[in-house]
Amino acid sequence: MKQLLLTMMALLFLLAACGTDDLSNGDGGNQGNLDDQTGHQTNPNDHGGGQVIDQPEELTEEELLAMIDQLNYRTAVQPDIEQTIFTMELINTGDDTVELGFSSGQQFEIVVTNAETGEEVYRYSEGRAFTEAFVYKPVEPGQSLTWKEVWEYGNDIQPGTYNAEVTILASQINKQVIEGQPFVKQFSFEIPEEKERSAFHNVKVEGTAGKYKVTGEARVSEGGFMYHVEDGHNLLVEDTPVQVAEDADSSWSEFELDIEIPEEQLPVNGTLTLVLYEENKKEGKPGSQHHVTLEQIIQ
């Protein structure tokens, strides 16, 4: 009997020793450990001392301002009779990649007011729903981010002068919060009047930065017309003939123009205007003209 009791006590001692050894060698589940000296969280799967997981270092105020300054913000507007096209571009002119953070799916805002009355006539975000998740957009050196919005108003907006405020709604740069709105442009533009008995109809413009595709319809005598491009001071594209259908004087004929202007000839601030006109061969001078805004460049 005494021997049996001694055997049972020995077994209990061995079981207790094994349990203590398992606890001392276990990884404590999936929780990470803390480094004894630094207090940083370590990689829980690294049992050889732990790899320290550091948070990104915050930029100084000077470094953050330098990041903002290396982003060149440009806007362009193309007003027409029934719609206006807004183009926004952020160009990274620096040597480092910049990551923009947006607090929602809305990445820009456009507000248009009547220049005479001050009445707000258009707000891009009105009536739209955006995701509430953060959105991140990296911009590599020498690359850019571009946004385009078409404001279609048909006959609801009267011709005249309007003021626009166009804002890129970035709230972070490289995961660091930026104060205020550093990317804002304010400018005025003209919505043109539709001229009666115009020889040109449904003229639309696509493109930016010196490369444009213009489509439309013409009703002109002798099946042809002329065009040139100017910026109010200089003639950027010389007078160029365009041939359309021979019966274009009695019906509308479609046309398409591909216009390229070298970057060094583009104005820093100004409006590129396409002038379409019929040539009055009897008098040797242009007939009625139709002006189309290719782009309003604001640096």
From TrEMBL:
Source organism:
Melghiribacillus thermohalophilus
Q: Where is this region: Disordered?
A: 27-53
Q: Which residues form a coiled coil?
A: none
Keyword Signal, does the record have it? yes
Domain (Intracellular proteinase inhibitor BsuPI) spans 75-172
Renumbered to this chain, the signal peptide range is 1-19
- Protein name from the UniProt record: Immunoglobulin-like protein involved in spore germination
Q: Does the keyword Transmembrane helix apply?
A: no
- What UniProt keywords apply to this chain's record, in alphabetical order? Signal
Which domain of life does this protein belong to?
A: Bacteria
Instruction: Show where the Bacterial spore germination immunoglobulin-like domain sits.
Output: 210-284
